[in-house]
Amino acid sequence: MNPTWLLRAKRWVQNPPSWGRVKLVAGVIVLCLGLFAVERIWGWPDWLTPENARPPSRVAR
Q: Is residue 36 part of a domain?
């Protein structure tokens, strides 16, 4: 483990984040997990899938 991370952990223990920050991070994590669950259950909508305007270029060797 890098000593920098130990110093960061020490500072975090001495000055923990506010409850508002904890709620914000928890909310973002819940939102991401919810979007992941919706995508896994119902799949990705076709209208959000990008379409290629042209085929990929081939590299000449």
A: yes
